[in-house]
Design brief:
single chain, about 240 residues, mainly alpha, 10 helices, about 85% helix, flat
Length: about 240
């Protein structure tokens, strides 16, 4: 059996085991989390996680992993909650590692068990279809850049990666690197919005700084693409 296949099977079995353990030890766990995340009740989410005491970091990590593995639930509320519970630095680390783990599990599931679902998601958008064609050429770079964008729907990128030819190793590495800046922004902004009176200055500086950086990167990429297209036209004209 290929190593990649072993990783896929192991991840699937572990995920099922985690679901089973959580369900039998805390039957109301999934109901509480789904309600808190879909309704955006940060106070209730923070209170629920803190109720686990010293196990709060483990519970928070598991919840964040499951949310990102599902791919259809918003993780922004978990990022905010982690920032409030563990502080900005601790919240960034927990959220970053949990989200990365979650999207890798989701990728493995979509590439095997849910591949048809992933293909349907891609086919619904002409833009995603074009990205899928490009991802075969440079999947690592595409996924790395896409994951740095905060608040971008995680499930869409996971589906794109699942139907592309990107390897598990490249997908995992691109997400580990790309997820850090986007997760850090989500945690800091979420934390500072909730505690606005205490962090107004930092929130303003972070938002302005992020806008400038992402704007500059977008402009650079746009100019680069234009130069490449002009170069291709010149080459075709010369031929």
């Amino acid at each position: 059996m290929k190593p990649e296949r072993i990783v896929q099977i192991t991840a699937f079995v572990l995920l099922i085991a985690v679901f089973a353990v959580i369900y039998f030890t805390h039957p109301d766990f999934f109901i509480e989390i789904c309600h808190a995340t879909t309704c955006g009740d940060i106070d209730k989410l923070v209170t629920y996680i803190n109720s686990f005491g010293v196990w709060a970091v483990v519970i928070s990590f598991v919840i964040d992993v499951l949310i990102n593995a599902a791919g259809c639930l918003p993780s922004i509320f978990m990022s905010t909650a982690n920032g409030i519970i563990f502080g900005v630095v601790g919240g960034v680390i927990v959220s970053w590692l949990a989200e990365t783990t979650g999207v890798i599990i989701s990728f493995l599931l979509m590439r095997t068990v849910l591949r048809d679902t992933a293909e349907k998601i891609i086919r619904k958008s002409k833009y995603l279809t074009k990205l899928d064609e490009f991802s075969g050429k440079d999947g690592f770079k595409l996924m790395l850049i896409a994951r740095t964008i905060p608040y971008f729907p995680s499930g869409i990128l996971t589906a794109l990666g699942a139907v592309s030819r990107i390897s598990v190793k490249d997908y995992a590495l691109s997400n580990l690197i790309g997820k850090f800046p986007s997760t850090a922004l989500e945690v800091i902004i979420g934390h500072d919005v909730v505690l606005l009176e205490e962090n107004m200055v930092r929130l303003t500086l972070v938002v302005i700084g992020a806008t400038v950086v992402y704007g500059a990167l977008w402009y650079y990429q746009k100019k680069k693409t234009k130069r490449e297209k002009d170069a291709e036209k010149d080459t075709e004209s010369a031929c």
